[in-house]
Amino acid sequence: MQNAASPTAASHRRALRGVMFAAFVVLAACAPRPLADRGPALPGAQIENVYIATQRALAHPRQEFGQPRNKELNFFRAAISIPPVHQPGQVEWAEPGEPADPARHFVVTDTQVFDTPSRFVASAKRDGSGNETMLFVHGYNNTLSDAMYRLAQIQVDFDIRMPSVLFSWLSSGDPRGYIYDRDSVLFARDDLERVLSELTRGSGDRVLLLAHSMGAHLVMEVMRQAALRGDRRLLSRISGVILMSPDLDPDLFRSQAEAIGQLPQPFMIFVSRQDRALSLASFITGRKPRLGVIDGPEAVAGLDVKVIDFTALADGEGLNHAVPATSPAAIRVLSGLIQQASSGDGGFEDYMVLEAQPDGAVLPVSN
Fold this sequence. Notes:
By secondary structure, the protein is an alpha/beta fold. The chain has eleven helices and eleven strands. The termini are far apart. The relative contact order is 0.10. This is Esterase/lipase superfamily enzyme. It comes from Roseovarius litoreus. It holds the Pfam family DUF900.
């Protein structure tokens, strides 16, 4: 006989999760968001140039609810000083109300606005080596400051020497703006495709796409619309795709991938089953697990993708929503895997669950 109390208990659990989610949103929305601060560069400081293509109006980069979305792309460079005390995985922010100290915090030391995309691209390529550019697409609840400091941190911690560009779409930078941000992703598709076209205009130019969270939805949509239009040239210029903690319904991802057809290679999905941000997203979208928390290869069976599970390397930073970029252990492990793959000595399996060993080795416990 079915337990008559079980529907009520289940209802109570759902209600409790709803209350907890609402409390999280309210508390997060009330917390002050830090902004990038200008400051002098310390003598000998490491300076990372971050090139930004953004839909945000540079005079008012914060996108508020109800504010009309900007229809013009802007291009600029921010020189970001990395403090000597920097620790892998961290963005060292000044406390709200505290002036940024370049000895302890990330600071912007210089900016340059470009009047044409061609000048922007030329400058970005001069700052790196090779014909391949990394294009980073941030996720939900990101301000421009969040995104450009995160890319600077990734450039430093992974010792990236190729040209790097941030595409900053019109996220509200507010945890209450989940639906608003999903609409902003769709609004950004044509502009991201334009940036991709500009970065691959030269002969031999290639782009490595790195997308975080809801940015994965945007990247997949852009590749899908290029495929539906028959633009195989643009797709052929994508040298690889990394979806980090993708905030995507697995069914939608499969539909997008099938529409794209031949996926750029390598195509990697970084997941963490302890990603609390994606657990909240699952609650909002109907309690179905998102692509970034899948616990096996079944959800992507038949697709030419590699899934890397970073759950064991999570350290709680940022709700475990960007483990490969924020966990020192994950950064060390991923850097080692990249070196192995580059040298031809091993690399990435189709499905890997990673564990960090005391000696820094990588142990794939499932494939």
